[in-house]
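Limitations
The structure tokens in this dataset are predictions for the assembled complex, not deposited experimental models. Users should treat interface geometry with appropriate caution, especially where small molecules or nucleic acid strands are included. An illustrative entry is reproduced here so readers can see what is and is not provided.
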Amino acid sequence: MVGTEARESGTGYSQSLERGLLILSAFRSGQPQLGVSELGRTVGLSRSTVHRYVATLATLGYLQQDEETKKYRLGPRVLDLGFSAINSMEVREVAAPHLRRLSDATGFTVNMAILDGNDIVYVERCRSTRPGQREIDLNLHVGSRLPAYCTSLGKVLLAHLSQPLQDAALDGIDFTRRGPNTITSRRALLAELERVRRQGFAVNNEELAYGLRSIAAPIFDFHAEAVAAVNLAVHSSMVSMQDLVARLGETLRRAAAEVSAHLGYQPA
Amino acid sequence: MVGTEARESGTGYSQSLERGLLILSAFRSGQPQLGVSELGRTVGLSRSTVHRYVATLATLGYLQQDEETKKYRLGPRVLDLGFSAINSMEVREVAAPHLRRLSDATGFTVNMAILDGNDIVYVERCRSTRPGQREIDLNLHVGSRLPAYCTSLGKVLLAHLSQPLQDAALDGIDFTRRGPNTITSRRALLAELERVRRQGFAVNNEELAYGLRSIAAPIFDFHAEAVAAVNLAVHSSMVSMQDLVARLGETLRRAAAEVSAHLGYQPA
DNA sequence: GGACAGCGTTCCGACTATTCGAACGATTGC
DNA sequence: GCAATCGTTCGAATAGTCGGAACGCTGTCC
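Predicted assembly:
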């Protein structure tokens, strides 16, 4: 949860920019169409002030006004930003071909994610190449967010965080039960992260949703920092835990290690 | 090219927001790492002013500072925006399953795009389901942009624009030759758009790149406005023009019509 | 090793863009 | 036809913003 209160009141901070972006991100979830008054209420500003920001955003192409309802929605210009963010990631560029090969070799869906606070953000995704395969699709795509504590990708990334960063991340976690085996306490998560770090990979056995298993491995850059993680997602009825860890895990770890090597990582 | 000069100086416009977003979008292409001075030069502002915006953006998570180089890069928060834009598109939501079915049925890559100025922006993409298939991948993904005049998707969208909008769009086109058959004059493009509108679909026969053929059909909403377009992309060595237009074109048009119907479109 | 140029950052007073309330025209529901 | 709500415009008081100057730092060049 990011505080919406005043950040700094002194110099070195732009109130207008913060408010403009606040308005822009109000379009995130839920209703994609918002009016000036509606926005004013959610961000706590007068209608006239909101209108100024909205007009600016519309002029620049970040918002579009619906001619009938007079309400606003996000414009194509916003896409630019999102995708330049993704494309400016070196990891993703380097990893892409390896992930595709991994997906082709195993026949399962492969995902890559980074950590942002307590969330993971998908930055690459190769769907299972076998069509008829039972689909475990939680409507995930590049850019989707999931809580870190109940995903294999998230646990691997949390496990390799420095102590202070890990503490900070764990502080903000809301341990909601989401699947049969969700980890629901900080204590249990800490033990799990310790195990993950020792093993070098993380397993998710129906912690996020019923029927969903996955295994994830970290990707290190040349600073030996875990900048991303890759996983293989399977349906629990198709792959046993043993098979997941032993057979698929080995293939996955090899792929992850290749990517790390390309990023200049040298194992100790 | 979007003018960077003053927009309005009166009321109803936020200078700070424009400048903040200008800085944010300076990270778009090219170097993903930018410093304060560098930014100041590109956007024409003093270092101190730029620093205020950059600090604000970093606090909010839209930028991240590299600890070593002190330079800035885009943060994960920017991803949110881009993907909420994509996900808030009703067309995309409705079309997704149809596109997947179209891709599975034909075995070819299916794309959906919208028009933004003279560019098309990919908003959905289903890769060819047959692996061994010869890949014609210009490193395209959701969010990618291509000039409209040399793509089937773009021509279909331009063809169904209202007269004033079409004029405005054509004015800005830079007719660069990009493939063996690129249309290189406004006159020729106008004739082609007329044909596209009559036929109800557009064909791209190596106008964008050597070896690349595609056929695109428009998607109409309940206002009978072409809000998006779908295409099938093939390699010229795999599919003849006749086959593309007759066999694949028919399947494509049916899929596009289904999506249009779901959006409430009623053919005249 | 000292001078220099470049960087990111901070500070400050002058300034101007931004603020909200009030008012307008259009639309909607009763 | 009235009342409520919408998006929008206007204005004067305000407060957030502006860029020059200065700081500490890191490299490079004699």
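Some entries come with short summary sentences. For this one: The first helix of chain A runs from residue 15 to 25.
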